[in-house]
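Ops channel
N.P.: pipeline sanity check, posting one input/output pair.
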């Protein structure tokens, strides 16, 4: 009897072989855990090894989804089942995941915890089950390894110990993989956030550039083209246009265009609602068309007319105060199609464009109104400005009537004509000032002779208040200036001094030479420059208590001096009165333009 219980040599060899096979399997599992980095590949390989070693029919690994309070199969063997999801506590895997206990069943259907619905859905018949929890470092359950249907008999205690040993290694790998995936996911989210932030910063930078371009633009056309060009660069597309809403004739026009055939586009006149941009302007809704050939709103005949095939279109409405005034359109993005983010950015740009259009229109209207007002105020002072040359001309005409000498009459006639010529130039200068125009007719002027010739006009101006003129010219050389404009500067400063000395006084004009300039000083004995106007003395329409003042004399004088590349200052010297200093370069570096015909 003792010999019957003694293990046979074949049995020992079989046991040793099985043990060796399981040890090799454990080593293979260990190598797999370090060699395979993808979690799905790792678990699939482990399941194949576990199925083979334990002589099971199939195996499944369930992982715990704590957010949903579920277990779900990460790897499922077999052709019919890809994934299983069970609530925690339901089914064998759910029970083991919730309790953290190993479960070994020889007859699954005899246990009420077994969920027979899976078999019914798959047509698979489960007999024996061995389920072992995957325990993490902190003691929590990460998942469950479940093997089904031992090929011979039921799963043994050796199978339990083997699966428990494998599960401890797999749990470490799963926990590490989940940690790595979490870090990678956070890095990806951080990278995406950085990319979004960089995109927003780029968009803000572009919007800032657009605002700067709008502020620097001198006209509506210039502003729209600048805005459109920067927007086209931002979207990396081939062309863009701004379409304004239909006019009284029912036509929509392109206010601006950038890209191929832009000049032809600006000349287009389309019926209301024509094209994608026309539809957007008509309905006030954005449109993304990445297949123009399949969109009935896109006029293909215009593509052929302009020889510009359109691949994709983004158009957004431009609105002010709830009223759509047009549409902003971009064509042919160079990489990929237009998307929702492009639409949102285009809407921001369209809002800027609409506000800029309103701003430019308001600015132009204000400038027109301001110029009309300026012209009105200037015309009211024209008679006052003409009084001095007209008085001189009238005096010479009276002399001509009394003088019988033909040579004297001719000389007086020339002087009268010179006054009329001066008044003609004065009129042109006033109009040019109102229009903001700049023209210079530079000639060689000998300063001493110029001062002597204008002295009669200056004396005539000062005589209205019994003031006296004191000339001190210490420069006999020449400068290149517009003589008529310099004459206007002298008369404006003389009139300013005369009005400051209603009861008489003295105006001293001193001329001094400097290395590259000539300095003119105008010093009067009046009360000085009032404090309330000292900061804006050379602005248009600035006057202080003058009965006939238009506030343009000093503004025009400064403009003339600036045109010559010179400068002017005003101050109240300690000795009293007012002191104006003018510096003019001997050879002004200015761009010469022909004078405007009178």
């Amino acid at each position: 009897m003792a010999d019957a219980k003694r293990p046979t040599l074949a049995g020992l060899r079989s046991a040793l072989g099985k043990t060796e096979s399981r040890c090799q399997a454990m080593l293979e599992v260990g190598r797999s855990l370090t060699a395979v980095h993808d979690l799905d590949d790792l678990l699939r390989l482990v399941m194949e090894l576990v199925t083979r070693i334990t002589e099971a029919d199939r195996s499944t690994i369930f992982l715990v989804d704590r957010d949903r309070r579920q277990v779900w199969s990460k790897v499922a063997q077999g052709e019919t089942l890809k994934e299983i999801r069970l609530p925690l506590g339901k089914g064998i895997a759910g029970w083991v995941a919730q309790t953290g206990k190993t479960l070994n069943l020889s007859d699954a259907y005899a246990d009420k915890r077994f969920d027979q619905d899976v078999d019914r859905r798959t047509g698979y018949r489960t007999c024996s089950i061995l389920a072992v929890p995957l325990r993490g470092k902190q003691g929590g359950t990460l998942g469950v390894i479940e093997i089904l249907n031992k090929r011979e008999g039921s799963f043994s205690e050796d199978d339990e110990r083997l699966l428990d040993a494998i599960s401890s290694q797999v749990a470490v790998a799963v926990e590490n993989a989940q940690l790595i995936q979490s870090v990678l996911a956070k890095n990806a989210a951080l990278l995406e956030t950085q990319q979004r932030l960089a995109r927003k910063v780029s968009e803000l930078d572009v919007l800032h550039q657009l605002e700067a371009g709008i502020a620097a633009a001198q006209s509506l056309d210039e502003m729209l083209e600048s805005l459109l060009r920067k927007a086209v660069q931002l979207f990396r597309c081939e062309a863009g246009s701004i379409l304004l809403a239909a006019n009284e004739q029912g036509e929509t026009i392109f206010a601006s265009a950038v890209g191929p055939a832009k000049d032809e586009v600006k000349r287009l006149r389309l019926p209301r609602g024509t094209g994608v941009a026309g539809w957007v302007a008509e309905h006030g809704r954005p449109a993304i068309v990445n297949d123009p050939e399949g969109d009935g709103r896109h006029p293909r005949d215009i593509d052929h007319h302009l020889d510009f095939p359109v691949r994709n279109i983004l158009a957004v409405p431009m609105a002010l105060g709830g009223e759509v005034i047009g549409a902003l359109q971009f064509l042919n993005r160079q990489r990929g199609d237009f998307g929702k983010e492009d639409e949102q950015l285009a809407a921001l740009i369209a809002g800027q464009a609409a506000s800029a259009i309103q701003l430019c229109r308001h600015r132009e209207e204000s400038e027109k109104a301001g110029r009309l007002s300026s012209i009105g105020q200037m015309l009211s002072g024209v008679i006052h400005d003409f009084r001095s040359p007209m008085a001189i001309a009238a005096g010479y005409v009276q002399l001509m009537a009394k003088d019988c000498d033909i040579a004297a009459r001719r000389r007086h006639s020339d002087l009268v004509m010179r006054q009329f010529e001066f008044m003609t130039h004065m009129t042109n200068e006033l109009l040019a000032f109102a229009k903001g125009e700049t023209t210079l007719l530079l000639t060689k002027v000998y300063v001493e002779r110029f001062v002597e010739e204008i002295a009669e006009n200056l004396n005539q101006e000062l005589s209205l208040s019994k003031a006296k003129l004191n000339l001190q010219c210490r420069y006999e050389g020449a400068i290149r200036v517009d003589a008529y404009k310099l004459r206007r500067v002298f008369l404006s400063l003389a009139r300013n001094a005369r009005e400051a000395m209603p009861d008489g006084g003295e105006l001293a004009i001193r001329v001094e030479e400097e290395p590259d300039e000539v300095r003119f000083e105008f010093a009067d004995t009046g009360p000085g420059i009032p404090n309330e106007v000292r900061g804006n003395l050379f602005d248009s329409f600035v006057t202080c208590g003058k009965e006939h003042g238009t506030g343009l004399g000093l503004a025009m004088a400064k403009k003339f001096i600036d045109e010559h590349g010179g400068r002017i200052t005003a101050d109240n010297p300690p000795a009293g009165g007012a002191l104006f200093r003018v510096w003019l370069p001997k050879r002004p570096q200015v761009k010469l333009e022909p004078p405007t015909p009178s």
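N.P.: looks fine end to end. Residues 76-81, 545-550, 592-598 have pLDDT under 50 and may be disordered.
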